[in-house]
Specification:
By secondary structure, this protein is of the alpha/beta class. The protein has a single domain, classed as Rossmann fold, CATH 3.40.50.1820. The chain contains nine helices and twelve strands. α1 crosses α9, α3 packs across α7 and α5 crosses α7. The protein starts with 12 loop residues before the first strand and ends with a helix. The relative contact order is 0.14.
């Protein structure tokens, strides 16, 4: 599938919020190019852009807007999550951030970062655009709920602390990247990453494949493997240093002013297909770090531990997925007026 490009589309639907919408790769959805970033413009890897996606159908009685934020080696495809948020009264949106999914462009190094504020900028622009568009479509000024996963959840935590949208009413963090499971040798090696990132930020340090993503395919999830690859995406020194610094900020404590629901699996295990619990535990991030640091990111944090869930709780097997989505719906009910 080719990335959405507004200048390659014959017909565009321009809404009052100023976005040009085209048919998305997902049926029943539309996409709009948010344009290049301004604070962190491209350096050496070509054009940068961000893409906002919206469900065409509005909920019956809109109470708010919801923005879905993806993680690493990821993009928005989970329409069942958007449907759940829609059923809770939200107008569903999603963002594919720079160098990811619909926003991936020629010469981009997929998911590379030099600083977590690159994703913070993408979230700030996407949230503002989603709130403006939802308000234009419904004729009401709607509050916002953000649902963010993994690296996106790490960035969303920093965003909600540093520069939240004025409409933000609640934040859902799904398997946030607050810590990585590492051996003593790996932890020691990570201490050299900031130095390497200063001289060779685009050097791939962790080129491993993604058994986690392979497991999703084997369990029946359908997505574009060019944008979410079982082969994995090599983590650069820049990405590792940027997320490491952001995790330190989380560990030191944040002051998020809105209610936060933090969802986590009940255990972490090895990301190997021969792991008998590969489909029922987090094999990507350290859930102990989530449990340790989540209470310190704000005064109104609720930690939800879902037995049998995987890293992306919204992609877990049916029973833990239902527990999680019901909890998200309940949270939305509490934070939206």
């Amino acid at each position: 599938m080719e990335p959405i490009s507004a200048d390659a589309v014959a017909e565009e639907q321009v809404e009052p919020a100023g976005l040009a919408w085209v048919d998305d790769v997902l049926a029943g959805y539309e996409a709009a190019d948010l344009g290049p970033p301004t604070v962190f413009p491209p350096r050496a890897d070509g054009e940068l852009t961000r893409t906002l996606v919206r469900r065409t159908e509005l909920p019956g009685q809109p109470r708010g807007a919801a923005l879905i934020v993806h993680g690493y080696n990821d993009y928005f495809f989970a329409t069942h999550l958007a449907d759940a948020l829609g059923a809770a009264g939200c107008v569903p949106y999603a963002v594919d951030m720079r160098r990811a999914g619909r926003s991936l462009r020629a010469r981009n190094q997929a998911h590379h970062l030099d600083h977590i504020d690159e994703l913070v900028e993408d979230l700030a622009d996407a949230s503002a655009a989603a709130v403006a568009d939802a308000s234009a479509r419904t004729g009401e000024e709607l509050p916002l709920v953000v649902h963010a996963h993994s690296t996106g959840a790490l960035a969303a935590s920093i965003w909600a602390n540093d520069r939240p949208d004025p409409a933000l009413a609640g934040l859902v963090l799904d398997g946030p990247l607050f810590g990585l499971p590492m051996t003593a040798w790996q932890a020691a090696a990570m201490r050299a990453v900031p130095t390497l990132a200063r001289v060779r930020p685009r050097q791939v340090v962790v080129p491993a494949p993604s058994p986690y993503t392979t497991g999703l395919v084997s369990r029946g999830w359908e997505f574009d493997t060019a944008w979410k690859s079982p082969r994995g995406v090599g983590a650069t020194a820049g990405w590792l240093a940027a997320t490491q610094a952001a995790r330190r900020r989380v560990a030191a404590g944040l002051d998020i002013a809105v209610p936060v629901l933090v969802g986590s699996a009940d255990s972490t295990g090895p990301d190997r297909l021969d792991n008998p619990r590969h489909g029922s535990q987090d094999t990507v991030v350290d859930v102990a770090a989530i449990e340790a640091y989540a209470p310190g990111i704000g005064a109104g944090v609720e930690l939800l531990v879902v037995p049998g869930a995987i890293h992306d709780l919204a992609l877990s097997d049916e029973q833990p997925r239902r527990v999680y989505l019901d909890a998200v719906a309940g949270f939305v009910e509490r934070v939206l007026p």
